[in-house]
Design a protein that fits this description.
By secondary structure, the chain is mostly helical. 61% of the residues lie in helices and 7% in strands. The protein has one domain. α2 packs antiparallel against α4. It comes from Jiangella anatolica.
Length: 144
């Protein structure tokens, strides 16, 4: 599997940002609806202090990445770009490895720039978790 470069990773991340923004909006709408149902009018989106909003979004991103990589080996954005996260054995990462990769990815996002100097285009989170993000040969062959 050939390693994915910075442009492919960033394009996939943009798709994932859109998915996460939609999920975040949906969560706000549902929580506002629950509040409206329990307390009555007026309907309002929940308001959180800045730190709570930041922490909840950080947790949402880590859960999204961990679940995606554990269940399918890719996020929706990586699916669109034909990318897959695999271990040295070519299998999707397990839950612990995916969680480690997600935590490093979210806590140290500039680590993706390591792909520019890495011979095998691995980012810092790939090195720490023992994974590779590459082009899925099955998807590339089907697109031809």
């Amino acid at each position: 599997m050939s390693g994915a470069g910075l442009v492919s990773r960033c394009a996939a991340a943009l798709v994932d940002v859109g998915v996460l923004a939609a999920a975040n909006a949906l969560i706000g709408i549902v929580l506002g609806g629950i509040r409206y149902t329990l307390q009555g009018p007026p309907y309002a989106l929940p308001s959180l202090p800045g730190w709570a909003f930041g922490v909840s979004n950080w947790v949402l991103v880590v859960l999204y990445l961990t679940a995606s990589w554990t269940l399918t080996g890719r996020t929706p954005g990586q699916l669109v770009l034909g990318l897959r996260v695999v271990t040295e054995t070519g299998r999707p990462p397990g839950a612990v490895r995916a969680l480690v990769r997600a935590l490093v990815c979210v806590a140290f996002p500039v680590g993706v720039l390591w792909t520019l100097v890495s011979r095998d285009t691995r980012a810092v989170h790939d090195l720490v978790a023992g994974t590779t993000l590459g082009y899925d040969p099955a998807v590339r062959g089907a697109a031809r």
